[in-house]
Design a protein that fits this description.
The chain has 2 domains: about 40-195, Serine Threonine Protein Phosphatase 5, Tetratricopeptide repeat (Alpha Horseshoe); about 205-250, no CATH class. It is about 80% helix and about 0% strand. The protein has helices at about 1-35, 40-50, 55-70, 75-95, 100-115, 120-140, 145-160, 165-175, 180-195, 200-210, 215-230, 235-250.
Length: about 250
Amino acid sequence: MKRLSLALFIFIFISNVGFSQTSAEMARADSLFENYQQQEALDAYNQILEDDPQNLSALWHSSLLYSRLGNEFDDEDQQKEYFNKAKARAERALEVDPLHTQSNFVMAVAMGRMALIVGAKERVAASRDIKKYAERSLEADSSNAGAWHVLGRWNYEISDLNFAERLAANVLFGGIPEGASNEKAAEHIEKAIELNPDMLLYYYDLAKVYDELGQEEQAVATCRKALEMPSRAPEDDDTKKDCRELIDDLE
């Protein structure tokens, strides 16, 4: 009995040590993520996944980071490499929990990133899935600001398809998804800002939509609000530069 009790104690002790170590590693990774130390955060989540391949939080966080970091490259091959990794991680996250809001969100992001650097055929083919995953994310959690932003961007991009892309959609897929509009794009991105007012990119994207709608004063005011905000993410300075250029174009 003493031997059994000792063995049970050792098992519980080792289990608790492993759990505490994983919790500490996750806390460190999450802190790096929240502070936009993106490469360091990605390395930390990847390390967690080596020991725990089914860790849902590490899977969806690393997917989002691959999308963000890939977007920083100028080389299209490097972008594709990272966006493919983002999609692969999102697929694994969906295998763990297909109804999780972030699993669906990061898949929509990964596919949306890839759609921006491929041809008309691939972009139109991806459009339906981008919308599907964004909507599934919001079905799971209607307060997911990122999913509202993706859905807004989707409406904007679909409304802005050129003749060749619309022709490809009609020939290959029976037409583009119905119901997209810049009015909906503005509504969805406004919702994203309401839920997360600290993301500069949301303001710039909303300003672009206002410009498309002919609401130039609102576009300028939205850009000016972004310029007043502190830069937090690595890409915020570039976003502010885009805001200044849009203001110059409109004034």
